[in-house]
Amino acid sequence: MSKVKKIKGFADMFPPESDVFTFLENTAREVFSAYGYGELRTPILERTELFCRSIGAETDVVQKEMYTFPDRKGRSLTMRPEATAGVMRSYIEASLHSQEQISKLFTFGPMFRYERPQKGRMRQFHQINCECLGPQEPYADAEIVIMLLMFLKRIGLSDLELQINSLGCRDCRPGYHAALKEFLAALNTDELCEDCRRRMETNPLRVLDCKVPRCKEMTADAPVILDHTCKTCSAHHAAVVSMLDRAGVSYVANPRLVRGLDYYNRTTFEVVCGDIGAQSSVAGGGRYDGLISQLGGPDVAGIGFACGMERLALALEQKAAHESVRPDFLVAVLEEDGLERGMMLAQALRESGLKGEVSFAARSMKSQMRQAGKRNVRKVLLLGGNELVEGTVTIKDMDSGEQATVSMDAAPEAVAQ
Ligand code: HAM
Question: What global pTM score does this model have?
């Protein structure tokens, strides 16, 4: 019989890789709750219209990357390519704005984009996503960036670069579009890729986001948006960076940071990790005032970000993650008549708050030690002939190699040390 294989760009995740994801989620919960965020879970399937109206019809995501199909009644549905649009829809549907002035929501889960799979780029990938809805003030921008960096630091990531830009607002963006169009029109446009030639007219900002090397080269001297922002946007940006300075956050100004989704205005940011290859952006986000009203909701401002969990897993020091889920013990039973006692001992250890396993069959010392090494347990508890006669257990510390024999009752305390 032939085997059924998984879909290209989709992955299974076994321990210890899945332990890393658990560690990321637990740490995110801890850090975000310290800032007043609560967890929201939204569906994976949404109406296609939601993404067209928020992410933007001219973006790569909407044009080329969505998993879209009709349901049995012919309605067009899409597997979410990102979380923000769904969070906005649920915020509007639940009328959250009438219940609280500021809503701080995080969400975890799988996202789907039909991209060319490579290291750090999957068709099903996972995001940790945060949205802060309500405040227009630049302090909200600064706080969310600081929170993101705190989370990244907590999981053990260093050597990161925070890039920041402002995209202006609906008042000043048209002036910038005009300047950009003029610049683009003066180029030998035949040399631009087909997408850029079209986008020059429909959505010139997207040209700055093009990944084609020749397009990047040709637009290297394009006008800079921060030279065209209105007074209010300039003051907003100045306040954000001043707060970041004050908090001791280092950042790099990247005038080409337009992001791949159309809903952004004012602040945009990304965190880049040089060590993980071409797909180096581990997190990205920005402000999206106007998005909620564009989706039929009230005029409420918002700012958020998402981290790619696969990329975080590639980047972070795996040790920190594995340490947090490392088992405390393995009870290795070497004699058949010690199996029941082994079960009871393992249970007592778990009741005392420790985590670990016990062998279900008496096996050789060598095979049990191999299993302990594979599981990366801290301590092995040996139950052999002598121990069974004496009512003791021998505890081997797998890091130091030290060994000590203690009474059964003393085992939980000895393992916990
Ligand atoms: P994004 O930049 O499209 O933004 O995605 C955020 C992060 O998701 C990226 O920085 C990257 O780490 C990860 N990511 C994206 N595509 C893939 C992929 N194919 N494979 C692996 N990882 C990937 C957004 O999605 C916005 N919704 C973020 C946001 C929230 N803005 C405001 N609020």
Answer: 0.90
